[in-house]
Write a structure and sequence with these properties.
Blueprint lengths: L1 E9 L2 E7 L4 E5 L6 H11 L15 E9 L6 H8 L7 E9 L4 E5 L2 E2 L2 H8 L3 E4 L13 H8 L3 H33 L1 H14 L5 H13 L1 H15 L6 H18 L5 H27 L4 H20 L7 H61 L9 E8 L11 E8 L9 H4 L2 H15 L7 E5 L7 H14 L4 E5 L3 H5 L3 E10 L2 E8 L2 H13 L5 H12 L1
Parallel strand pairs: 3-12, 3-13, 8-11, 11-12
Antiparallel strand pairs: 1-2, 1-4, 4-5, 5-6, 6-7, 9-10, 13-14
Helix pairs in contact: 5-12, 6-12, 7-11, 8-10, 9-10, 12-14, 14-15, 17-18
Length: 555
C-alpha cells in the first residue's frame, strides 16, 4: 500500500508531505483546488510521462517520492527485482525528479532504474481508475490472469505450464530430427562417396604436427647427423673417453674413503651419478644417430601424405586438424540414416503423447475457468443492484483459441463483457459503459477480486461522476467494503461517498502575495463533518447541512 507521498514543486504544490493508512480514504476540495495534481504526482511514481510543464513556476526541478509497503515479499515484484539485480524488502521507496531541461531521474530504493522497470513494478503496486483507461481490468489482456487469480486452481496452472514446455521441447526435438534426416537423405550418395574417400586416407588426430616434425627432421638430416656425431665424439674423445676419466676419478676417491672412513662418500656418489648420466647420453646419442634417415623415399612419402591431407581439407573447406572429426560426423550421419526412420517415429510418438497430455490438462483448466467464471459473474451481478444498476449484467466470455495461439497459459481466450440494458449487445467495459457506469462496474468487480488481487492500492478518480443520492450512497458503501481488503483512495465531490470514508483529506488552493499554492490536510471528525456539510450546501454552511452531514456519517 501507499504509506506516504512527498511532493516538491509540482504545478501549484510547493511542498507537500502526506501519510496514508490502510482502508478507505477520500480527498475532497473545490474544483480546481489541485486534486488532479496529486493524482498526476502519483502517476509520475507509476511511470507516467513527465513533462517540464509540471514544474512549479520559478523552480528548477520537481521531485516526487512515494513509500510503499508490500505484503507479498515473494511475489511478482520480488521476481522483477531479482531479475534486475535490485534489492527488495517489504518497504519500497520510489523517487522521481525532472528538471527544466527535461532530464529525468528515477530511483528505486536509492538505486537508479529505467522507466521501463518502473512501469513494470508499478503494475503490481497501484491501479488508478478514471485516468488510465488501458490499465488493469480495462485491458482485456489482463482478464485471463485476473480470472486465474480468482480461481483456486494454482496447482493445475503449474501442471499446465510444465506440460506446455514438455510438449514444446518434444516438438522442437522432432523438428530438428526431421530436418537432419531430410538433409542426410538428400546427401546420402555424397556422404557414402565422401566416407569412402576418408576411409582411404584415414586422417588421424594430431597427424599434421607429427608429419611436419618428421619432414623438418628429414630436411635437416645431414646437419642433425653431423651435430649428433660431434656430440658422440666429444664424449668418446681420444686417448680416453669422458666415462674413462670419470671412472679413474671415482677409483681415486674410493681409495681416499678407505683411508678416511668414507669421509668423501657423497663425492663418490656424485661421480657415480655423473658416470651413469654420461653413459645414458652416449647411448641416446647413438640411438638418435640410428634414427636419422637420409632416405629420400621417406621424405617423399611424408610429402605425399601431407598433400593428400591438405587436398582433402580444401575439398571439404576445413582444416587438416578437423578432418578426423568431420570423418566421424559423416559416418554418424550415415548411421543415422539407417536408424533415422525408427528414431523419428519414436520422437513423433513422444511429441503426440506430450501434446495429448498438454491438451488434457488445458481442457481441465478450461473447465475450472468456466466454473470459476460462473461464480464470479454471479457475484458481480449480485453487486450491481446495490449500485443502482439493476438492468446491467456482467459476463466472462471464454472461447477456445486456435492451435497456433496455444501457449503455457492454455487454450482459452478470456474476456470480461458487460451490457447496461436488456436487448443491448455485450461489449468491453471501456466501450459500453458511461463514466458513472464504468466506475460502478469497477467497484462491483473489485469488491469480489480484492482478496485475490496482487494490487494493494486502488485509486478512483471522480468515482461519483454521473451519480448522486442513493446511488452515491451505495457507491460509498461499496468503496468502504473494498477498503476492508485493499487500500482505497478516492477523489470525490460526493458527500455520500466521503461520509463512508475512514480517513478524509481536504485539498485547498490558497493565494498570498500573488502566489497560489495547493495544500492538503487530514481532517479530524469535526472538520470532516464541516467539509461534508460544505459539500452538501456550498460555502455557506447551514445548521441543516451540518445535521445532514452528521446523518450521512452515522448512516
Amino acid at each position: 500500500m501507499l504509506k506516504s507521498l512527498s511532493i516538491r514543486n509540482v504545478v501549484l504544490i510547493d511542498k507537500l508531505d502526506i501519510d496514508f493508512s490502510k482502508g478507505f480514504s477520500v480527498l475532497s476540495g473545490e474544483t480546481g483546488a489541485g486534486k488532479s495534481i496529486l493524482l498526476d504526482s502519483v502517476g509520475l511514481l507509476l511511470g507516467r510521462r513527465a513533462e517540464a510543464g509540471m514544474i512549479r513556476h520559478g523552480c528548477d526541478k520537481l521531485v516526487v517520492a512515494g513509500c510503499f509497503e508490500v505484503q507479498d515479499t515473494d511475489g511478482s515484484i520480488a521476481k522483477l527485482c531479482a531479475d534486475n539485480d535490485i534489492d527488495f524488502n517489504r518497504e519500497i521507496l520510489i523517487k522521481r525528479s525532472l528538471d527544466t531541461n527535461g532530464k529525468s531521474k528515477i530511483f528505486f530504493n536509492d538505486e537508479p532504474v529505467t522507466l521501463k522497470f518502473l512501469k513494470e513494478v508499478a503494475a503490481y503496486l497501484v491501479e488508478i481508475h478514471g485516468q488510465f483507461d488501458n490499465q488493469g481490468l480495462l485491458n482485456p489482456v489482463t482478464h485471463r490472469e485476473v480470472l486465474d487469480h480468482y480461481g483456486d486452481y494454482a496447482n493445475d496452472l503449474e501442471k499446465l505450464h510444465t506440460s506446455w514446455y514438455v510438449y514444446k521441447n518434444a516438438a522442437a526435438l522432432l523438428k530438428q530430427a526431421e530436418e537432419q534426416y531430410a538433409a542426410a537423405q538428400q546427401d546420402e550418395e555424397n556422404l557414402r562417396h565422401w566416407v569412402d574417400e576418408f576411409n582411404k586416407v584415414k586422417p588421424r588426430e594430431n597427424e599434421l604436427v607429427d608429419l611436419e616434425d618428421k619432414r623438418r627432421q628429414m630436411m635437416n638430416a645431414e646437419k642433425i647427423l653431423e651435430n649428433l656425431n660431434a656430440a658422440g665424439q666429444a664424449l668418446n674423445s681420444v686417448p680416453q673417453s669422458v666415462s674413462s676419466y670419470l671412472r679413474q676419478a671415482q677409483t681415486a676417491v674410493a681409495r681416499v674413503n678407505v683411508l678416511l672412513n668414507d669421509k668423501y662418500a657423497t663425492l663418490y656418489e656424485v661421480l657415480d651419478t655423473a658416470l651413469i648420466n654420461v653413459t645414458e647420453a652416449e647411448e641416446e646419442i647413438a640411438a638418435a644417430v640410428n634414427n636419422v634417415s637420409l632416405n629420400q623415399n621417406d621424405l617423399d612419402s611424408i610429402e605425399e601424405r601431407l598433400f593428400k591431407l591438405k587436398s582433402l581439407a580444401r575439398k571439404h573447406q576445413t582444416t587438416v586438424e578437423e578432418l578426423p572429426q568431420l570423418w566421424h560426423d559423416m559416418e554418424q550421419r550415415l548411421v543415422s540414416l539407417s536408424s533415422g526412420a525408427e528414431n523419428l517415429q519414436k520422437l513423433r510418438d513422444d511429441c503426440i503423447a506430450a501434446k495429448h497430455k498438454y491438451m488434457e490438462i488445458a481442457q481441465q483448466v478450461s473447465r475450472l475457468r468456466k466454473a470459476t467464471a460462473l461464480t464470479l459473474d454471479a457475484k458481480i451481478c449480485a453487486e450491481l443492484p446495490d449500485l443502482k444498476m439493476d438492468k446491467a449484467r456482467f459476463m466472462t466470455k471464454i472461447e477456445a483459441k486456435p492451435e497456433s495461439a496455444w501457449n503455457e497459459n492454455g487454450i482459452d481466450d478470456v474476456c470480461f463483457l458487460v451490457t447496461t440494458n436488456p436487448g443491448q449487445p455485450w461489449g468491453q467495459l471501456s466501450k459500453i459503459a458511461s463514466g458513472g457506469e464504468l466506475a460502478r462496474f469497477m467497484l462491483a468487480i473489485k469488491v469480489n477480486l480484492a482478496q485475490t488481487s496482487q494490487i494493494e492500492t486502488m485509486i478512483f478518480d471522480e468515482v461519483d461522476t454521473g451519480v448522486g443520492g442513493a446511488t452515491a450512497q451505495a457507491v460509498g458503501e461499496k468503496l468502504a467494503k473494498l477498503g476492508q481488503n485493499v487500500q482505497v483512495l478516492v477523489v470525490t465531490h460526493s458527500p455520500q461517498v466521503a461520509a463512508q470514508s475512514g480517513y478524509h483529506f481536504k485539498v485547498e488552493k490558497r493565494t498570498a502575495d500573488d502566489v497560489t499554492t495547493t495544500t492538503i490536510k487530514q481532517l479530524n471528525e469535526f472538520e470532516k463533518r464541516e467539509e461534508i456539510a460544505r459539500m452538501l450546501s456550498g460555502e455557506q454552511i447551514s445548521d441543516e447541512a451540518r445535521a445532514a452531514a452528521q446523518v450521512l456519517i452515522g448512516a
